[in-house]
């Protein structure tokens, strides 16, 4: 059955959009996205999209505000061009960590972003490994929430490091994700307790679990400065870990993060290409284009995406 859909991309990660389109046997559709000298964004869709299913690939990674605004403007352009449906494909959902009021007089920005996307005309959101799963409830439109665990575990199995393995959560907040990995791999679970000194400095203070003589997989959803991962790795080395790997859904690594990984006790950081920042020494990128592309195909044909969660 022929696909009658269009894949568009903003400027955030066109390479991922190209991979997704290639998986579907399509080419990325033509749109002009540029910045005026005063910083305003201009968008023009250069193809007929009337009564078509439109998928706009745009992770809201740095520069976050620019990429988010681009997405909103592209959605508006598609809506005014009479698209049948508009799916925002957001592999990395920025502002996801601002999902609650943890201080007086602060916003819930993740909810605001959900409102903006809906108001702009998004019909559905396709995303991956939200920092907080309850963000799905911030939307009044369907949200398909995929997981990167399947592609990360496949790489680890192919690499042959799943024997004698312990999965470690680098902080208390990551326990749910770490448990999912340990259960799927059938290996023990451990946890590092940390103390956040500042926005970029983290101190690992204690370990719950046994890692001596074991291969270790640290798992987390997001890494930017890599302070949490590298601090945990240092503590695990102290407790006798044999080889230390890290698996991160979204590596939004800045220069400090790349340097920390390069100089750390981590043998390899495995991440997805949900953003273009998963690069650097000791960083291995695995592609999520196939799982996103398959989800797009199933959404287009009205099929279930449930089987995409299976790990084999």
Q: Mind explaining what this structure looks like?
A:
- The radius of gyration is 20 Å and the shape is globular.
- It has a seven-stranded mixed beta sheet with strand order 10-9-8-11-12-13-14.
- The protein contains eight helices and 14 strands.
- It is of the alpha/beta class and 312 residues long.
- Strand 12 (243-251), helix 7 (255-263) and strand 13 (268-272) form a beta-alpha-beta unit.
Mean residue pLDDT: 93
Count of helical segments? 8
Distance between the termini: 27 Å
Biggest sheet layout: 7 strands, mixed
Overall outline: globular
Instruction: Give the proportion of residues in helices.
Output: 25-40%
> Strand-and-helix sequence, N→C?
EHEEEHEHEEHEHEEEHEHEEH
Query: How many extended strands?
Result: 14
Cross-sheet strand order for the largest sheet: 10-9-8-11-12-13-14
How large is the radius of gyration? 20 Å
Low-confidence stretches: none
Roughly what fraction of the amino acids lie in strands? 25-35%
Please state the structural category: alpha/beta
């Amino acid at each position: 059955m022929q696909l009658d859909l269009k894949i568009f991309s903003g400027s955030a990660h066109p390479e991922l959009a190209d991979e997704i389109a290639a998986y579907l046997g399509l080419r990325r559709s033509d749109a002009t996205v540029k910045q005026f000298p005063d910083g305003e964004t201009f968008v023009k869709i250069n193809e007929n999209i009337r009564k078509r299913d439109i998928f706009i690939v745009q992770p809201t990674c740095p520069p976050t505000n620019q990429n988010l605004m681009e997405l909103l403007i592209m959605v508006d352009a598609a809506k005014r061009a009479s698209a049948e449906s508009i799916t925002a494909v957001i592999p990395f959902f920025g502002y996801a960590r601002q999902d609650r009021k943890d201080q007086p007089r602060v916003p819930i920005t993740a909810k605001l972003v959900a409102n903006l996307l809906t108001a702009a005309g998004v019909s559905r959101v396709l995303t991956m490994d939200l920092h907080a799963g309850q963000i799905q409830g911030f939307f009044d439109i369907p949200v398909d929430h995929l997981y990167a665990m399947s592609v990360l575990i496949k790489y680890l199995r192919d690499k042959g490091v799943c024997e004698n393995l312990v999965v470690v959560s680098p902080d208390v907040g990551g326990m749910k994700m770490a448990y999912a990995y340990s259960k799927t791999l059938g290996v023990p679970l451990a946890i590092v307790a940390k103390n956040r000194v500042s926005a970029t400095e983290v101190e690992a203070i204690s370990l719950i679990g046994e890692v001596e003589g074991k291969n270790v997989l640290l798992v987390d959803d997001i890494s930017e400065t890599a302070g949490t991962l590298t601090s945990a790795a240092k503590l695990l080395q102290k407790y006798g870990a044999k080889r230390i790997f890290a698996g991160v859904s979204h590596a939004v690594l800045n220069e400090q993060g790349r340097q920390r990984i390069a100089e750390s006790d981590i043998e390899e950081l495995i991440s997805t290409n949900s953003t273009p920042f998963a690069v650097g020494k000791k960083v291995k990128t695995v592609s999520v284009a196939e799982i996103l592309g398959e989800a797009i195909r199933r959404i287009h044909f009205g099929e279930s995406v449930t089987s995409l969660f299976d790990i084999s």
